[in-house]
Amino acid sequence: MKKIIYFDNAATSWPKPVSVYRKMDEFIRKWGANPGRAGHRMAVGAERIIEETRHQTAQFFAIKDYQRIIFTLNCTDSLNIGIKGLLKRGDHVITTYLEHNSVSRPLEGLVKKGIITVTRVNHSEDGFIDLQELNKAFTPQTRLVVIVHGSNVIGSLQPIREIGKISKEKCTIFMVDAAQTAGVIPIDVERDNIDLLAFPGHKALFGPPGTGGLYVAPRVDLEPWREGGSGVDSESELQPKELPFKLEGGTINTVGIAGLGAGITFIQKEGIEKIRQHEMELTKYLLEKLSEMRKVIIYDSGDGEMRIGTVSFNVEGLSPAEVGAILDESFGIACRTGLHCAPYTHKKLGTFPEGTVRFSLGYFNTREEVDFAINSLTQIVA
Amino acid sequence: MQANLNRYSRQILFSEIGEQGQRKLRDSKVVLAGCGALGTVIANSLVRAGIGELKIIDRDFVELNNLQRQILFDEEDVKRNIPKAIAAVEKLKKINSQVKLEAVVADVNFTNVEALVEGAKLLVDGTDNFEVRFLLNDACVKADIPWIYGSCVGSYGLTMNIIPGKTPCFRCLFETAPLPGMAPTCDTAGVINPIVNIIAAIETAEAIKYLTGKFEALNKDLITIDIWEGSFEKFNIADRRDKFDCPCCKQRKFEFLEAKQGSSITSLCGRNAVQITQKSIGRVDFQELAERLKKSGEVTFNKYLLKFSIDQYEISLFPDSRAIIKGTNDFSVARGLYAKYIGT
Lengths: 382, 344
Hints:
heterodimer, A: alpha/beta, Aspartate Aminotransferase, domain 1, Aspartate Aminotransferase, domain 2, 2 domains, seven-stranded mixed sheet, 13 strands, 38% helix, 15% strand, B: alpha/beta, Rossmann fold, TATA-Binding Protein, eight-stranded mixed sheet, six-stranded antiparallel sheet, 33% helix, 22% strand
């Protein structure tokens, strides 16, 4: 296979640090047993690594009680566990038009069943939500504010600390979808006033697909909707009440979580600021080059600091799917096209239903790759 | 002679069949893959000849341009916009109520082909593309079901019998499919009905021979006919199986059944479109394909893509033969369009 330029890090980051591959290989060979279900050395060893990773992940997000992080399949899983485990009949939810389907669909499902009501707060053209409108959206029934931290379409970054503060004042639970930010933007659940933090393992945290996590603040009580084996308290007829067991029924993805741990270690060693700086420099360079091109329309959140390395655009005269196929086929550039699972955002942008071409840059992308992509696009529009 | 065999008296009088042969026909289950030009002629003849059971598989709906050659359909079927398999079964029931008929409206692919051919004594080919024939070949060789290949385009057609383990199989002759877009199809090069009738007639005759147990009478060659030029040729292919280490019938590697060969299809995020990609990659000659397609619809191309519009659909084809088909979310429709206009 010819060399690939990977610009689809918003979906899943690739490549991973070599230490992630090594850790997973080592783990499955040495500790491939079931964690916490037996007393033999392999089971104990597996559990030790899972608990180390839990601890490490908690520290990474400044979570005091590491048992309040549960491991999940992915960010969608985390969001579902949080949303469906929290909301009760009659609750009101505030959200935005920038959400991914992993938030919109669970909410819409509950709306259709007549269980909750939802208010969506508008955002500016460059993708920042209107905080005044947010303030006015609260009702006595508002139980949850759920907001995507970084837009996976236009890359805008919401001021979660401020939103969290507003939610706190209104005695509402604040849930953050950190799908695009966990690993590249520092998140501190205490300072940022976050009650529920949903994050994927396979994006900027450099873990493999099939990993994710959910932080549950002490003041939040979630009903489990997956019950089963926990390895503790087995004589009890019901799911244990303690975290993480309460929400983590069944054998978890041990090898994936070991890989996730190695991914977080990589970030800690490199430094999250350095990673962020590299991605921003590259993103600004990409934006600068794209904006010089004729026939290219950028849908974007500007070149300020409140953004991430995700850039959406279209090419006049070609559908996004066609541009994506040409980039892949003729130039070896992997990117995502279409709606990026965020239909509301595209309706607002006026790019529904065709969507956009999305370049999402990661730490391992280079300036040369951006140059190559720009050169390729220049040939396509010629 | 039993009363219910009376209707076949003229066929029974034919000494090669006789009453015994007729009973064998009555006891046999045949699967017909594809019910277009060849398929309707074959189904019509086999049902009239009195086979016991016929399963008809087709994914398409009856269209006006089918009526020129697809003998079981009429203008009423076009108005009703019904699937070909259903329309055919409706018509055939009126022709011979003794035959058990089953219509399957489906796209034959690696997930369902084995179940579709299961229990058949014989499969007859009325399909329109290489990929599905490779699939049918894999499924039939694996399950030891004989099948009769037939195809035509323009004024030209060909047919052969495939008896697993005894004769060369389809893959012994055609190791791989031609590159997408590089072979003419009925929708790009046209087809006239006499060649359809003659190839379907040979397929039917071979089916009757096989089902009545007259194996020695079966054709052993690859027959090719050009009805316009008046050429009738037979190619001896008997040694093909000995000379070629066929992945399918010799090595018993069923690559199409296991989806290691062939195309794959995915919905594209958020739009009324699907993408078809081929596993074996080659470069498509846009110039040549555009030349062929321009008779059927609007076509433009550059170095990177070829766009072809037909009815409410648009096909964007890329040099590695992947295609984005706009205007549908239905995989069957998309595969049908690909087979008809690009061809595999």
